[in-house]
Amino acid sequence: MKYTKELKTGILAVVAIVILIFGYSYLKGQNLLDSNRIFHAVYADVEGLSASSPVTINGMKVGQVTNISFLDERGLLVVTFNVDNDFKFSKNSLAQIYGGGLIGGKSLAIVPEYEPGMLAKTGDTLPSAIEEGIMELVNERLTPLQVKVERAIVSTDSLLTAFNEVLDTETRNNIKNTFNDLSETVRSFKNTAESLDGIVSGNSEKLDRTFSNLDEMSGNFNKFSDTLAQIDLNGMSGDLEKIIADFEKISNNLSSGQGTAGKLLTDDAVYDNLDRATKQMEQLLQDIKLNPKRYVHFSVFGKRPGPYDAPNDSLK
Question: Which positions make up the signal peptide (predicted)?
Fold first, then answer.
């Protein structure tokens, strides 16, 4: 049987179309010769998930996303994916979008549930969820920090503004003059310290002698303190109490008129007699002074004493 060129061209076209379909499906992750299970999940946002993204169970790749399309006019998205593994799981298992970092893209994970009699079949729609990725976690952690940094920047700006308002030209000049005065004061202290250093250096020997004398004085004070510690203060206190008692006894005797001194202080007659005796003694001494010859006489020729001079009556 002889084929015409048109038939051959048609057969080649059909084969090319079939190869193109199989190749396109293979590139999209679909193998038309395999009996894969097809599942669906509905999302409000697929977070960058794309066709041919891997589908995993417990981290193991079991399929891939085959199609993402709009479900309705509200913008809900339906994700279609296949599972080329015979692993059994419930139709209540969660289809969760996860991952997404600085380099890698999003993936779809099936979080399996094991419920007897409710196994997932091809064409079922699984519950959906989205796990926060690295960028979302970073943004979540950095947002409070960003707010704090912004507040700190605003506070710093306000503080700088307040400083600029307070530190006008006159205030700045005053602060500058104050630092200049402090510099002069420090320089003066430095000169004073150098002078004191010179004085100390020039009088080091005298200072050594002074400290030596102070050391000796301290030793003498220690010896004196030891001497005081050895004194019988109790005995001295007892003797002092006896002396005070004797003085008190004498004072009582004088006050009561006992003894000569007591009578002299309390008896007027004794005082008058003593006063008269004193006056007579004065007259006697005056008479001896005026007429010594009456009391002491010595003469070879027996000459009589001169005339008598009476003493002064004012002493009576």
Answer: none
CA separation for the pair 45, 50 (Å, rounded): 12
Structural domains counted in the chain: 2
- If residue 97 lies in a helix (H) or strand (E), which one and from where to where? strand 94-99
Whether the CA torsion 145, 148, 150, 152 is positive or negative: it is negative
122: left (phi over 0), alpha (psi -120 to 50) or beta: beta
Instruction: Classify residue 59: in a domain, yes or no.
Output: yes
The domain of 15 spans: 1-33
Place of tokens 């004061």: 185
Instruction: Decide: 18 and 66 in contact? Cβ < 8 Å.
Output: no
- Over residues 56-111, the pLDDT tens digits come to 999 899 999 999 999 888 889 999 999 988 888 999 999 999 986 556 578 999 99
pLDDT digits (tens, 9 = 90+) for 195-205: 888 887 778 88
**The domain boundary residue, chosen from 76, 109, 131:** 131
User: What order do you get walking across the sheet with 128-130 strand by strand?
Assistant: 37-43, 77-83, 60-70, 54-57, 106-111, 94-99, 128-130
3-class SS of residue 209 = helix
Q: Give the bridge partners for 38, in sequence order.
A: 82
Same domain, 22 and 51: no
